[in-house]
Specification:
about 350 residues, alpha/beta, 12 helices, about 15% strand, globular, binds nicotinamide-adenine-dinucleotide, binds 2'deoxy-thymidine-5'-diphospho-alpha-D-glucose
């Protein structure tokens, strides 16, 4: 089986490559990534020593390069994760989001169709559904109502994949997952930013009233769901993926949990101006994937958070290197006018 993982040097992509190498010893894996600011070859470095894992530095928007790769390799299965993934960056500038997330997906679909890829899994997000009030859940049938440029670009890419399924009888599924956390998470996102800032004794910039709710899923649980969808999911179907009831938490409580685990004072919390159009609550109903494919989350939130905190404590050089580079100018721009 020849498998392509796009976005393989990013957070979820790298965790997926680790899982596939562990759980599918006969698969030959091509790990593709452009290595943007968010991609880090160290995330999969040790795996590249294996003969059956190779790395390709390719831009998914480069139709010629992608076409060549697909016609040469004749992949059986594609996991498509490459994307611009950070909401705050999409608010500062959205062109790259449309380019990578929409055009890049379409380029991959064209190449996959032409080279007769058997199965394609498009990794999307619950953010395409927009924002919930204090009750209710996102279902696969919930209308798309994205509020950020990031979410809009992901919704557009989902629709392109589903249109290929209808028009070309293409064998693809779309997955929509809640917020992930775990090792190799880039420290611009809430959990790794707050863990590393707290470890450095820096302030934790909590947006708005801190009561926006996210539903968290440990990244390995997400990757296991993706494998199930790849192997047993149905063409043209959307699968919601999400955490357990214990994982639906206001940002304030996640922040308290991080500070408590690190033995740090709550005085480090700094309330700052809110994210524009900040989605109030995400909560997903994942009963379809549970009933059809037998998947459910297995890592309790607190256990996953302890493992994650321990990983950032043991891998200080990984995140210190990131935070000392170009990341600093992004950080200053994003947090400059929040008060
Ligand atoms: P990430 O930002 O950590 O990784 C994205 C990877 O894509 C990076 O390695 C980057 O170098 C690569 N990339 C970007 N542009 C590229 C291009 N033009 N060509 C090739 N590679 C390119 O993101 P992530 O958090 O790992 O998310 C992966 C996917 O999962 C995304 O599609 C995202 O929308 C989706 N998702 C993420 C979450 C989450 O909580 N992180 C939840 C649900 C869905
Ligand atoms: O729901 C899935 C989505 O989860 C994915 O599609 C995205 O790729 C991923 O980035 C994530 O989006 P969020 O916007 O929910 O994640 P983020 O970590 O940026 O923010 C989580 C919550 O924390 C959100 O309510 C905003 C808040 N926040 C975030 C940052 C970076 C803060 O209060 N302060 C911060 O500094």
């Amino acid at each position: 089986m020849k498998v392509l993982v796009t976005g393989a040097a990013g957070f979820i992509g790298s965790n997926l490559v680790h899982l596939l190498v562990r759980e599918r010893p006969n698969w030959k894996i091509t790990a593709l990534d452009l290595l943007t600011y968010a991609g880090n070859l160290k995330n999969i470095g040790s795996l590249l020593e294996e003969e059956r894992v190779s790395f390709a530095r390719v831009d998914i928007t480069d139709a010629a390069a992608i076409g060549d790769l697909f016609s040469r390799e004749k992949f059986d299965l594609v996991f498509h994760l490459a994307a611009e993934s950070h909401v705050d960056r999409s608010i500062m500038s959205s062109l790259e989001f449309v380019n990578t997330n929409v055009l890049g997906t379409q380029v991959l679909l064209d190449a996959a169709l032409k080279s007769k890829v058997e199965r394609f899994v498009h990794i999307s997000t619950d953010e395409v559904y927009g924002s919930l009030g204090s009750t209710g859940y996102f279902y696969e049938t919930t209308p798309l109502d994205p509020t950020s440029p990031y979410a809009a670009s992901k919704a557009a890419s989902d629709l392109m994949v589903l249109a290929f399924c209808k028009t070309h009888k293409f064998n693809a599924s779309v997955t929509r997952c809640t917020n992930n956390f775990g090792p190799y998470h880039f420290p611009e996102k809430l959990i790794p930013l707050f863990i590393t800032n707290a470890m450095e004794g820096k302030k934790l910039p909590l947006y708005g009233d801190g009561m926006n709710v996210r539903s968290w899923l440990y990244v390995t649980d997400h990757c296991e769901a993706l494998l199930r969808v790849a192997e047993r999911g149905r063409a043209g179907e959307v699968y919601n993926i999400g955490g357990g009831a214990d994982a639906e938490l206001p940002n304030r409580d996640v922040t308290f949990a991080i500070l408590d685990m690190l033995g740090k004072s709550r005085d480090l919390i700094q309330p700052v101006g809110d994210r524009p159009a900040h989605d109030r609550r995400y909560a997903i109903d994942h009963s379809k994937i549970t009933q059809e494919l037998g998947w459910q989350p297995s890592t309790p939130f607190r256990k996953g958070l302890e493992t994650t905190v321990a990983w950032y404590q043991s891998n200080r050089s990984w995140w210190e290197e990131i935070k000392s580079g170009a990341y600093r100018s992004y950080y200053e721009r994003n947090y400059a006018n929040r008060g």
